[in-house]
Specification:
The chain is an alpha/beta fold and 535 residues long. It has 15 helices and 26 strands. Helix 1 (15-23) links the parallel strand 1 and strand 2 (30-33). Helix 1 packs parallel to helix 15. It binds flavin-adenine dinucleotide. Flavin-adenine dinucleotide (FAD) binds at residues 9-15, 33-36, 54, 79-82, 86-88, 90-94, 96, 215-216, 249-252, 254, 258, 470-471, 502-503, 513-516, 518.
Length: 535
């Protein structure tokens, strides 16, 4: 059996960061175990390629939710990254820190050290944002941040239409999380910037080992102390020992799954599958939160959309040449250009809706060619969702078989507040699109179409068409309540030498997009580990 000081499970947005920060110290040996492969496929690196990878099981865990009761029983496809960099290697690259007041709520909810001012040094450390001289932005970090990769007439008019509807123009929403702004992307020189860059920088260190295409099945315990993991590589089961700590960073679906398979979770649920409970922790897999995004789609008279380059070989070739020579244009983004963080009601202290323009339209968001539903005309979509959803779901093992996918219940729209806010959001989108600044570029509203007008019909449209924004969090929630799984040091209750460090620890939704906070969790988590080691 091999021995390491630290074993980290999952090389995603958080795990890659934890590994690299510990390895850099050169004092401790680290094994990073990742189920996916390396990320050298061109479509993982060219931003527009996201459409090609999301349905490819080579790069993703292709999960589906259970039939969702409030979505007319639809089951929603939930891809997650299964590759170096995890979901940061397959995501939409929209770069958002989030709302400071939400992090302050984390701190004030019994999580000392997690307020925005305390997290700001990590937000700065992780990023390379050369365009900004603002003291609160970072330069030289592993994640490159760019903006203005593609600026076209339609997006500019959408920006103006948001202003005309009351949104404040904002040239850096990562300083002030409010108003309308051109998106910032985790893209550097036209190439995706994922957390695999953290791994690249430590590859040659002697105290570092990485196992790819290797899936962790269980944590090995001595009493309640985590002492190693059991994992499968090339169909061979292996055991490896951790002298110091085991860190789960397998993401919001697989971190709770590994805990449950290891006997940490709701004791009754575990017993029902023949698993002997090691510690009764009913919050494992609960509190699942995600953004349900509903898109209204339009036909435009401007040929500036992704539809135009995918439907027309000549335009496609021009876009490719522009990308090769200038590293910008439609191929340097996933499709979204502008977002507006807005209030559903002017009397609110903080905005509660995110509206975003995507220069693509089709039957659904995975439609990237005509055969599978991409619209044949120049089309675009405006998506909206409540930023801080109240609905909650769960994810739990289906059996004690490690190869079984978990049972995921997203719980979309199960809370009435989300249903009301979704309808308000759809009305807000229509208000924006009725402004003269943009209406001249619209041929028609394609979906749902102007015949859908009353609240019930709009809600039904969301139930029929709403989709995940891929922002699942909170399934191993941090806090001090009965349903919390880790404390503010990210240590799993009832165990020793075991932490969860990934997006599943978020106490609630802090933002409209979850990648940057997941990286910050990795940065802070590494500091917590090192603080203990160096005591
Ligand atoms: C399609 C998609 C689009 C998104 N778009 C955006 C966006 O534009 N902007 C934004 O801010 N956020 C976006 N997100 C969300 C964001 O990327 C995630 O919230 C974030 O990456 C979560 O980080 P994580 O470390 O918790 O999990 P992940 O990054 O998913 O990492 C988990 C890692 O653990 C590995 N793993 C899992 N189980 C095991 C096991 N048993 N053994 C070994 N390894 C294992 C996985 O393969 C993976 O590499 C998107 C997500 C997806 C899926």
């Amino acid at each position: 059996m091999d021995y390491f000081d630290y074993i980290i499970v999952g090389a995603g947005s958080s795990g890659a960061v934890v590994a690299s920060r510990i390895v850099e110290k050169k004092k401790y040996s680290v094994l990073l175990i990742e189920a996916g492969d390396i990320n050298n496929h061109p479509w993982l690196n060219i931003p527009i390629g996201v459409g090609k990878i999301l349905t490819n099981p080579k790069f993703v865990w292709n999960y589906n939710t259970e039939p969702e009761p409030e979505l007319f029983g639809r089951s929603i496809y939930w891809p997650r990254g299964k590759v170096l960099g995890g979901s940061s290697s397959i995501n939409g690259m929209v770069y958002v820190r989030g709302a400071p007041h939400r992090y302050d709520q984390w701190r004030d909810g019994n999580n000392p050290g997690w307020g925005f001012e305390e997290l700001l040094p990590y937000f700065k450390k992780l990023e390379d944002r050369p365009e900004s001289d603002n003291k609160d932005r970072g330069k030289g970090g592993p994640i490159g941040v760019s903006s203005g990769n593609y600026q076209d007439k339609l997006s500019s008019s959408f920006y103006q239409a948001c202003v005309d509807t009351g949104a404040e123009p904002n040239d850096d929403y990562n300083i002030k999380f409010e108003g309308v702004g051109w998106l910032q992307y985790s893209v550097k020189n036209g190439i995706r910037s994922s957390t695999s860059s953290y791994i690249k920088s430590i590859r040659k260190y002697k105290n570092f080992q990485i196992e790819i295409k290797s899936e962790v099945e269980k944590i090995i315990f001595d009493g309640n102390k985590a002492i190693g993991v059991l994992y499968k590589s090339n169909n061979i089961l292996k055991k490896v020992t951790a002298n110091a700590e085991v860190i789960l960073a397998a993401g919001p679906i697989n971190s709770p799954k590994i805990l449950e398979l290891s006997g940490i979770g709701d004791a009754n649920l575990l017993k029902s599958f023949g698993i002997k409970p090691k510690h009764n922790l009913p919050g494992v897999g609960e509190n699942l939160t995600d953004h349900l995004q509903t898109r209204i789609t339009y036909e435009t008279n401007l040929k500036v959309t992704v539809n135009d380059i995918l439907n027309n070989k000549f335009r496609g070739a021009l876009s490719l040449l522009r990308y090769i020579f200038k590293r910008d244009g439609l191929m340097s983004i996933a499709s979204a250009t502008v977002q507006s963080i807005m209030k559903s009601d002017p009397s609110l202290t903080h905005p509660d809706l995110k509206v975003q323009l995507m220069l693509i339209s089709g039957q659904n968001r995975y439609a990237r060619n005509k055969k599978i539903g991409l619209d044949s005309f120049p089309g675009f979509s405006v998506g909206v969702f409540p930023i801080y959803p109240s609905s909650r779901g769960s994810t739990h093992i289906k059996s004690k078989k490690t190869s079984d996918s978990p049972v995921i219940k997203a719980g979309y729209l199960s809370d009435e507040k989300d249903r009301n806010l979704t309808v308000k959001g759809l009305r807000l989108v229509r208000k924006i699109m009725s402004q003269s600044s943009i209406s001249k570029y619209i041929v028609r509203e394609v979906r749902p179409g102007q015949n859908i007008q009353d609240d019930r019909e709009l809600l039904n449209y969301a139930r029929q068409n709403g989709q995940t924004s891929w922002h699942a969090i909170s399934t191993c929630r941090m806090g001090k309540n009965k349903m919390d799984v880790v404390n503010h040091n990210l240590e799993v209750y009832g165990t020793q030498n075991l932490r969860v460090i990934d997006s599943s620890i978020m106490p609630n939704m802090p933002t409209s997009n979850t990648n940057v906070p997941s990286i910050v969790i990795g940065e802070k988590g590494a500091d917590l580990i090192l603080a203990r080691a160096e005591k």
